[in-house]
Amino acid sequence: MAKYYFPAIFDPGADGSEGFTVTFPDLPGCITEGSDMADALHMAKDALAGFLFGMEEDNEEIPSPSNPDNSKLPPGAFVSIIEIWTDYVREEIENKAIKKTLTIPKWLNDAAEKESINFSQLLQYAIKERLGIVSKQ
């Protein structure tokens, strides 16, 4: 399983609001924000998971995480280690349902509905059979 730990900088900014901007020093461009601590932590995990999943999909080299003690922090900011598993992201994406529009003759639709045929299930079964796929559910 692809499990990663990266330091994230939580910066409350200078406007006095409860929100945080979250950046990852080792991953330029991986940035998010949250309206409060819980939201910022959730968004940090989501941003890191998506960013690293994209890097894996593009066969990019994922850098080693830096030592959080070496992070340069703005006033009021702090570092937290964020843990993610890209395998869970991949599984979620691969199993996401995709809506397809299809066309069949009315008489066939009527007959299938009369027999309570689940069109989506039948189409999945037929495609798997045609492709010789037996293991994926």
TrEMBL record:
Domain of life from the UniProt record: Bacteria
Pfam families to which the protein is assigned, alphabetical: HicB_lk_antitox
Xref: InterPro entries: HicB-like (IPR031807), TTHA1013/TTHA0281-like (IPR035069)
Residue span(s) of domain HicB-like antitoxin of toxin-antitoxin system: 7-109
Protein name (record): Type II toxin-antitoxin system HicB family antitoxin
